[in-house]
Amino acid sequence: MALCLLTVPGATQFRAPFATVLKEAGQSASVRNAKEAGNEYAVVTLTHEKAKLDIWFSKSHNYLVGKLVIWSTKEFPHPIGDNTVTAFREVAPGIYFPSQVASTNYSAVDGKVIARRTVAVQDIRLNQPVSRDRLAFKFPPNFTVLDQIQNKVWQTNSAGEIGGEAKGADGKPLTVARGTLPNPSSNAPSGAGDTFTSATTEEIQSPDRWITRVSTFMIACGIAIYVYKKMKIARTV
């Protein structure tokens, strides 16, 4: 629910940051001051072809959105949604987070309430250290890894870490382009498995490079044909 207060419906995007929606063409905006429940707000009314929005920025909470009211179109007199922050939590000195949001959905035709719900965020942490282990990617233990950039085959240890290059029946390191890759999940003897006959030894390049080469070749051919015709006409004259 807090996400609804961080992004708003746009004319070309379903949800986008307020600054992005504000830059979209074909809309009008106005600003007014308002006071509600003891808080002062700067209210921006934004209208575009798909919706009308009242965005209430709380002056007491670093101008975070404290309320968002949405109309589906300009023809309907009733809003279809109202998201209001009922509690801000100061997670650090001068830094606030919408810890509780009340949401109400209305019928756009007669304004009757369709649904109400309240969302509360209990665990809010700001700039907490994150251990490297939480973000680290690990392979399964005793796993064979194909490295098509370096043209090598690696073997992981019991901890899922790269333990060294995988070796074939002859005791030599395997490569993607030659040799036989053992299948660690089977009981086949060392050296049995899938044979690899191709390799990628560099990063994949963009196909745009071929467009440039072909275009250059076609231009050169065009110039050659033009020169040939000119020379032929000159000889005829």
TrEMBL record:
Transmembrane segments: 210-228
Keywords linked to the UniProt accession: Membrane, Transmembrane, Transmembrane helix
Lineage top rank: taxon: Bacteria
Region (Disordered): 179-203
Biased segments, Polar residues type: 182-203
Name used for this protein in its record: Uncharacterized protein
